[in-house]
Design goal:
The chain folds into two domains: 38 residues, no CATH class; 110 residues, Jelly Rolls. The longest helix is centred in the first third of the chain and has 14 residues. By secondary structure, the protein is mainly beta. Strands 5, 7, 11, 12 and 14 form a five-stranded antiparallel beta sheet that branches. Strands 6, 8, 9, 10 and 13 form a five-stranded antiparallel beta sheet that branches. Strands 1-2-3-4 form a four-stranded mixed beta sheet, with no helix packed on it. It has one helix and 14 strands. The radius of gyration is 28 Å and the shape is elongated. The termini are far apart.
């Protein structure tokens, strides 16, 4: 009798344990892991698999924190999750060529600039360039970002042509104003980018 009770108790304990699912399974109902101690919905490792199908996830363990999750967006194509474009904006009141380099921005992480747009209010135009500089020498000219200077007029002007679109983390980016026509009271610059 004691063997039967021990066998029932052992079976009950095993029923509450972990279940391993092998083979191909499709879940069509609800699978609630809300009370789980931990979950791992993605494969993980240090190298993205060469092959994937849309909808798969991969956690890259050697990537920087917050840049670990990759999604397979189409056959054999991995894209880092949350790689959202962002925009920084600058406004300069009463812009003049003497303002060159005085207005600077900085990105906390390395970025790739994808588009620059600009306009002026109350004048004819202002010609700009962006200049990546070294953090220890923010007043020393560095490397031009735009492939050519951009002429900002009352209508929005844009460019996606760059000689240096990849900006290092914490590197100052200076706004250079090489010419002003008329007497604009405001220069507006919008820098679209993605985090590397």
């Amino acid at each position: 009798m004691s063997r039967i009770i021990a066998a029932i108790a052992l079976t009950a304990c095993m029923a509450q344990g972990q279940t391993v699912i092998n083979g191909n399974r499709v879940i069509t109902g609800v699978w609630d892991a809300g009370a789980a101690i931990s979950t791992k919905p993605a494969k993980s490792g240090t190298s993205l698999p060469a092959a994937c199908s849309a909808g798969e996830q991969y956690f890259k363990t050697d990537a920087a924190a917050g840049k670990n999750l990759y999604l397979c967006t189409s056959a054999d194509t991995w894209t880092r999750a949350a790689q959202m474009p962002a925009v920084k904006s600058l406004s300069v009141f009463d812009p003049a060529t003497g303002d060159s380099g005085r207005v600077q921005i900085m990105f906390e992480e390395g970025v790739t600039i994808t588009r620059v747009a600009c306009s002026v209010k109350g004048g004819t135009s202002a010609t700009i360039q962006l200049d990546e500089r070294l953090a220890p020498e923010p007043d020393t000219p560095g490397t031009d970002v735009l492939a050519a200077p951009l002429v900002c007029d009352p209508g929005q002007q844009t460019t996606s042509a760059f000689s240096n679109a990849t900006i290092a983390a914490r590197a100052p980016v200076a706004l250079l104003i090489s010419a002003v026509s008329g007497t604009p009271d405001t220069l507006r610059v919008f820098i679209s980018y993605t985090v590397d």
